[in-house]
Hints:
Elements: H1 3-9, E1 13-20, E2 24-31, E3 36-43, E4 47-49, E5 62-68, E6 75-76, E7 79-80, H2 86-94, E8 108-114, E9 118-125, E10 133-136, E11 149-152, H3 153-156, E12 163-170, E13 174-180, E14 187-193, E15 197-199, E16 207-214, E17 221-222, E18 225-226, H4 232-240, E19 256-262, E20 264-271, E21 275-282
Antiparallel strand pairs: 1-2, 1-5, 2-3, 3-10, 4-9, 5-8, 6-7, 8-9, 11-21, 12-13, 12-16, 13-14, 14-21, 15-20, 16-19, 17-18, 19-20
Helix pairs in contact: 2-4
Amino acid sequence: MKLVDLIARSDESELLSLRYDGFVLEQDLLLGEDAEPVTVRIPTHRIWTCLPTGEESKSSRTCAFRYDRLADLAVQNNRYVPASDFVGVMKEARANRAMAYGTKVGEYGVLSLASARRIVSFLVRADDADEVEVLPLRELPRSTTPMANAMKLSDLIPRTGDAELLGLRYDGIALELDLLLDDDWDEVRVRIPTDRIATRLAPRYPQVCFLLHDRLEGLAVSRGRYVPASGFVGVMKETRSDRTLAYGTKVGEYCGVLSLHAGSKLVSCLIRTDEVEVQLLQEPS
Length: 285
C-alpha cells in the first residue's frame, strides 16, 4: 500500500498491539473509520515508544499515522544535527525528530502513530517510504512462556560485562533480550516489563554489550514530574542518555532507565522495579 494512502485512511484507527524484533516493526490496527483489522510491517532499526498504560482509556489508543520528512532540520556535513537553540531542541524532542540525529540527509523520515501524543515513532528509509506492507490481521498463536526466575538487577548487571546480544523482541508489554552472558556462557532471556523504549540498533547480531541502570538522579522536577533540564547542554546529555524517556512521568513511578550498551546505547527502557525475569535458554556445553 502507498504510504500516502495508509496515512489518509488511518484517522480514527485503534492500536491493538505491536511487535518488534530489532529489524521489523509490526503494528496490529483497526484501520480507519471502517475498523479494518490489519498488520502494518515496516523495517526499522530505531524506534521510540510511549504506549498507553492499562489505566488509560480506550481513546488513548485511537490514533493516526503522521510522516515527517525532516524538512528544516539542521544539517552539518550532510548529516542531521540538533537545533542550535534550547526551544528548537525541545520541539525536536517532542516530535521525536531527535532519533534522526546523525543520519544522512534524505536517508530517512520519521513515521509516527499518534493520538494526543506520539505512541510510537520510528525511522523509515526514504526508499521504503513510498510503499509499506499492509496485511490482513491474523490470529497469532498463543505463546507459552517457560518458567523464569526473578533476579535483582544488582545481580544480573555484573554478569553482563562482555555479554553478547543474540536477539530482542518487544510486544508493547515487555522487552525481551536474549543474551549470552560472559561469566559462564549461559544463554538467557531477560524479560523486562515496560511501556517506553528507545532503540538505536545496528542491523546485525550478535553484538558485545553490557547492561546499565540509571536511577534518574539529578533529573529536574516540576510539580512532582520529571522535566527537561533548563539548558541546551543538559538537554543534549539527557537525550544521549535516553533520560528523555522519563519526561512527564511522576517522581517515584519508575525506578530508572535500563540500557543495553555496545559502545553506544542500543536499547533503553523505563522500568518500575529493580527485578527482571531471567530464563535459562540453553545449558552451557
